Amino acid sequence: MLLRKPGAFVAATFFFIGTFGQAVFGADEMTIEDYIDEARPYLHHSCQSAWAASNEDPDEYVAMMNRFVAIAFINHDFDVQRIDDAPEADQEKLRVLFYNDVGKRCEEHPDRLLAGIVERSIEYALKEMDKKRQLMR
Predict the structure, then answer these.
(1) What is the mean pLDDT, run by run of 10 residues, along the chain of 137 residues?
(2) What is d(CA 92, CA 116) in angstroms, rounded to the nearest whole number?
């Protein structure tokens, strides 16, 4: 269960943090349908059931999340290049915002769909970064 192993979840998220954009859209060309097909078998999982389905393996849990991140980027037409081009400090802030939000949402609602949590957390993190950037100008 996800909530009983918070250390493993944190390790999984920090593993994913290092490759935010690259893990989502790697070197191989994939179509939107390919990304959807990769995510489809996992779309029914909640935060809790995804952790159980991964056999509490942080790498597998992150792989599931990566599939959802790709779909969220496609759904919202997010510009991955914008993230890749951002200064490393901004990328790190984005990652921390994203993973803190995923963790908070999954802790509060372990039975909610992980795909939805990931999507909302990406939206939240990007909006927060935009607000901070405007305040810093």
Answers:
(1) 37 42 56 91 96 92 88 84 84 89 94 96 90 59
(2) 22
Q: Among 45, 131, 57, which Cα is nearest to 94's? A: 131
Q: Residue 113 forms beta bridges with which residues?
A: 46
Closest CA to 98 of 74, 119, 71: 119
Q: How far apart are the first and last CA of the chain?
A: 43
Q: Which two tokens stand for residue 95?
A: 């990652």
pTM (two decimals): 0.76
Task: Give me the long-range contacts of 114-117 (CB less than 8 A, separation at least 24).
Answer: 114/42, 114/45, 114/46, 114/47, 114/50, 114/64, 114/65, 114/68, 115/39, 115/42, 115/43, 115/45, 115/68, 115/71, 117/47
Alpha helices, DSSP H, located in the chain: 6-17, 20-24, 32-39, 47-53, 58-76, 80-85, 88-108, 114-136
Residue type present at position 104: K
Chain position carrying tokens 């909006």: 127
